[in-house]
Design a protein that fits this description.
Blueprint (H helix, E strand, L loop, with lengths): L13 E7 L3 E8 L4 E4 L5 H6 L24 H9 L8 E5 L5 H6 L5 E5 L3 H9 L4 E2 L12 E7 L8 H8 L3 E12 L4 H4 L4 H7 L6 E2 L2 H10 L2 E8 L4 H10 L24 H18 L5 E8 L1
Parallel strand pairs: 4-5, 4-7, 5-6, 7-8
Antiparallel strand pairs: 1-2, 2-3, 3-9, 8-11, 10-11
């Protein structure tokens, strides 16, 4: 365990809290120079691996496929639209942290080769049974099978121990024109950094998330590892979920929904509450994204 910043190795960090989601005792520190939070377990490789053994961690989607509720933010659609201009039938694609393969299946017909990396044994077994090549070790612990044209890491970079070493190893999987796409939680999320809700912070900091990036810290890390990048944020949670946290100290059953999806009634014909709330939510998301405060932080990168 270490209280040195994983990005700049600074030990002059400040203590944030000593507990993460589930009541697990783990210290969280903040490097003010990098604008970055991290768990003290970031360099404990064996501990991090133990979090994924057997069926301890199986990735699940935000909503079941048969739900009648509509997602306000469809992360898979957004990701696909982001990557689509870089996919064609001459390209090879690798998804690191591919979970149950939902995104691999979306892009399979757009590329010449689609492969995955996943540490969760049940999901590796499922993908291999469906005909995918899925590697079950961390990319820094195996020889790169090839240099891929497009690589994605959605909700993965915050999970890997020794992140700087990991990114150095990742370059073995890339050529000079490769495009790599990262997506991580954004520490500039207003529920973390804008309002004082300790219950949300206890929910937000998790034993499987070793790092909490801001646009500044992610750009520093990628530049330091030899990548140039462009950044943007997007907002997954609805404004009504934020209101739930601010007033009830807990979130909606699913943060991605608007509680106005199925309003009881419109009070007056000239006061369509559902429409009003949807427009307010759209405007709120727009403001957060324009100010790099959306709860998802994304980077598109290539080798310098």
């Amino acid at each position: 365990m270490s209280k040195q910043c994983p990005i700049c190795s600074n030990s002059d960090v400040i203590f944030v809290q000593d507990e993460v989601h589930g009541g697990i005792k783990t210290n969280v520190f903040r490097c003010l120079d990098c604008d970055f939070d991290f768990l003290e377990t970031w360099d404990n490789v064996e501990y991090v691996k133990s979090l994924y053994e057997g069926d301890k961690y199986v990735f699940g989607h935000n909503v079941s496929e048969d739900s009648n509720l509509q997602l306000k933010y469809d992360e898979y659609k957004i990701r696909y639209e982001w990557l689509k201009p870089y996919l064609d039938n001459s390209k090879t694609f690798l998804e690191i942290g591919c979970g149950d393969g939902k995104f691999l299946k979306m892009v399979r017909d757009d590329v010449s080769l689609a492969e995955g990396v996943e540490l969760s044994p049940p999901q590796v077994e499922k993908l291999r049974a469906e005909g995918f090549t899925c590697y079950d070790v961390m990319v820094n612990e195996m020889e790169a099978p090839r240099q891929y044209d497009v690589v994605s890491m959605f909700a993965v970079l915050e999970h890997v121990p020794n992140v700087s070493e990991f990114l150095t190893s990742l370059k073995n999987y890339l050529h000079k024109d490769s495009q790599i796409f990262f997506e991580v939680p954004n520490l500039n999320d207003p529920l973390v950094s804008g309002v004082d809700i300790q219950e949300f912070r206890n929910f937000y900091y998790r034993p499987i998330h070793l790092y909490y990036f801001t646009p500044k810290s992610l750009e520093i890390l990628l530049n330091q590892a030899g990548f140039e990048c462009t950044l943007h944020t997007s907002q997954q949670a609805s404004i009504t979920n934020h209101f739930h946290w601010m007033h009830n100290r807990t979130g909606q059953p699913n943060a991605n929904y608007m509680t106005s999806v199925h309003p009881p009634v419109n009070v007056f014909e000239k006061l369509p509450m559902a429409e009003i709330l949807e427009k307010v939510d759209d405007y709120y998301r727009q403001l957060l994204e324009e100010n790099m405060m959306g709860d998802l932080l994304a980077a598109q990168a290539k080798l310098i």
